[in-house]
Amino acid sequence: MALLNTEHRAAHQFTLYTPPQHLDQVALVATAAAPGLLLLWWVPLSLVLPLLSIVSFMIAGIVALFAHYSGADHRAKGITPWSVAAVFTLIWIVAGAISDPTPVVQLFDRLATDP
């Protein structure tokens, strides 16, 4: 008896089938670099890495939700929304691991004591 591979078979689904849309690598690099450059420009240097970690966590979550609800195939060729979420997850983990939490704690202490 043969087993049927129904993973990519056209079947009745709740959503319409759309072919996977691939993002350009240049757009991925620009999207990944933009939050870091904006943070370098707008916040003090001691807060860049902790805030980059927080911002990349939020972007990774939003892109992952978009990829999940749009039904993007993570095995598709090229760069998919899942790849973008993975890049921002990696940025989140690395920035969080190498950042010093002392300036963030001092900032929150200052904000808590100011009226």
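Above is the first protein from milestone M3; the second protein from the same milestone is given next.
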Amino acid sequence: MGSQRRTCGPQSHVSHFFILGFVKEDKFMNDLLALIYLVFFAAIAGGAFALMSQNLRSSQERNSLQAPRKRSRVHPEAPQPGEEVLYVDFSRERLEQIYQQTP
């Protein structure tokens, strides 16, 4: 009788209580890690929102401080009035004259 193994008894219940206690501790750690994750997530999301709002506010202030510029519709490389420019006429009549003049 002394050499037989007992499958149930006080020792097996102790091990089950230990396992249940470990599971409770593991659940506490999971809850703690979830809380830490949510705190850091909220901090990063809040920082991103603050950064975007400050960026928008500063760009609005910069645009409001600048005097409105009058945009000219003249191209910067356009010739000034009275300035001579090189002109090439590619009209059909002009090209026919050039073609007939060549030997």
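Note on the second protein: The chain has a mean pLDDT of 77.
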